Amino acid sequence: MTLSNSAYWVLFSTTLALYLTMAIWSVPQISTAASGLAAFDMRPLGYSETAAREFLAALNEQGRDFYLNIQHRIDLVFIGLLALTLGIAIYFLFPTAPGIVNAMLILLPFMAALFDYVENSRVAVLLTSNLESITAQQIAAASQATVLKFGFIAVSMGIILVGLGFKFNKPGREIT
User: What backbone phi and psi angles, to 5 degrees, belong to 59?
Assistant: First the structure.
């Protein structure tokens, strides 16, 4: 294993560890603090104004503080690591793609990261505002960022799966 392979697997493992930390600990803690409702970050299809207001009304102060100060800090690091992990995987899975195509493919996970950062910023506004002062437009903008984040992640993962399919389905290999 080369140094670059080892570095990639350290990056992958760190990204996975942060994901598991959020999936097992921080996101369930937010959900519990909101009477079992899903956090904004865990709604891949977005959320309506009614659903957002319901979540914000149910979220207790400790949960709100945890979301802003713990979850968003973990996510701040996770987002960048995920973009790097997926971008590097795409780069190495498509080594013969023309430069512009490879660059466009690699850009996709970084677009997911951009929208995740936008989502976090917009969710922070929702979490720190008085419920009555939050506008439908603010909720819609946060929801849109969430949907775009998940969309770019899904496309990035799909591209990686296609790349893995090409890599492991070489001529002369039978899939049984």
Answer: -70, 120
Q: Residue 51 has which token pair?
A: 């659903």
Q: In angstroms, how far is CA 108 from the centroid of its own chain?
A: 12
Cα–Cα distance, 127 to 57 (Å, whole number): 10
CA 152, CA 119: separation in Å to the nearest integer?
13
pLDDT value for 1: 62
With contact defined as beta carbons under 8 Å apart, do 66 and 33 qualify?
Answer: yes
**127: CB partners within 8 A, 6+ apart:** 56, 59, 64, 67, 68
Cβ-in-10-Å burial (0-12, 13-18, 19+) of 122 comes to: buried
Count of CB atoms within 10 A of residue 132's CB? 6
Name the helix (H) or strand (E) containing 19.
Answer: helix 3-21
User: What stretches in the chain show pLDDT beneath 50?
Assistant: 175-176
Residue ranges in 67-135 assigned as alpha helix (H):
72-93, 99-128
Helix (H) or strand (E) holding 23: none
pLDDT at 98 (0 to 100): 85
| Residues near 40 by beta carbon (within 8 Å), at least 6 away in sequence | 47, 52, 55, 119, 123, 126, 142, 143, 146
pTM for the model = 0.90
